[in-house]
Design brief:
single chain, alpha+beta, four-stranded antiparallel sheet, elongated, Immunoglobulin-like
């Protein structure tokens, strides 16, 4: 099946979630030994579609300002929209992030269509949507070793700000 570039409401929400997960992985627990990397979402590809789900790969650029490389090992994530699950899973990455450089990382996700339908139903007739993002990032770094960085963000956004390019 050919790879397709995708832009729609579930994928926009996924972009926001992944960018938040990576950008919120600041130096909790690392003290002054570790500076926060910056992250940009470069794009997403649909790599496989079945009757029940779509497999996606998000391309993100991780810029590491530190003098040492580190490994982004695993990302556990869960995103709910208006209380309904949209994304839930684990990305086993083992991606080495270069010292004082930028590394492109590919994060695989599975989007289940039943979750998308439930989330869209929860948004029906609403002007705003609430989200709840929980993630745990696992890093291996020199000096500080293997660390887990929990991330939780809640908020809301205006549905009128989302434009679909269909």
């Amino acid at each position: 099946m050919p790879v397709t570039r995708f832009r729609s409401i579930p994928f926009l929400l996924s972009y926001v979630a992944i960018a938040a997960v990576f950008s919120l992985s600041a130096c909790a627990g690392f003290g002054h030994l570790y500076e926060k990397p910056s992250v940009r979402v470069l794009g997403a590809e649909v790599t496989n579609v079945s009757l029940v789900s779509a497999d996606l790969v998000f391309d993100v650029a991780v810029e590491n300002p530190n003098r040492f490389a580190f490994v982004l090992d695993t990302v556990d994530y869960r995103l709910r929209v208006n209380g309904e699950p949209l994304l839930d899973g684990r990305g086993d990455l083992r991606a080495e992030i270069a010292a004082r450089g930028t590394t492109e990382v590919r994060l695989p996700l599975t989007l289940r269509f039943t979750d998308v339908l439930r989330a869209l139903h929860a948004l029906e007739g609403e002007k705003r949507a609430g989200y709840d993002l929980e993630a745990e990032l696992w890093f291996d770094a020199p000096v500080v070793g293997r660390r887990s960085v929990p991330v939780r963000r809640r908020g809301d956004f205006s549905l009128s700000d989302i434009q679909l390019g269909l």
